[in-house]
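Exam revision sheet. Question 4 asks you to relate a sequence to its structure. Input first:
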Amino acid sequence: MLGCRNKDQSESSTVNPITSSLSRSNSGAEDNEDSSEEYLDGEYCASINYYNPDTGTQSSYTLTVEVSGGELVLIHWPNGGWLDDSHFNPPTLESDGSCEFTSYDGKQYDIQIEEEGSCGNYSKAPVIEEEKEGDENLLENTEEENSEEAEDNAVVKYNCLKRTICPC
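Answer key, structure tokens:
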């Protein structure tokens, strides 16, 4: 699925974007509070649930995201990598700060904006790091019960150190 589902309407209904925007602009300030423009351009700290249907891998992250024009346009990974519109069609945020999308490679993301500002867990400048002592610790993942799932996540984390764009 690309974009966000409209929680106020059934999935089978069709909304005409022209008449929808006209009715919003004519209905007063109350309706404008529900618009995705509630989220101004900038950085936000968000909870992200990731699912890879090919492997069954599921992970949860708290990451800094960027919003522009009411759309989620960028996800920052802690190592300086990122996910942007070269990986997914930017979804429009719902009024509650949620959205979901499927990346071009089939991975599914559910996003929930938690607060304004950075989570403080990424480097603004993309950096390709050389292998350092301690990188072997990335292959250990004690939080996940399924060892195959843990291995998949560890490989993604390790490979992300070698590339500027994640997940790999």
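Marking note for examiners. The mean pLDDT is 69.
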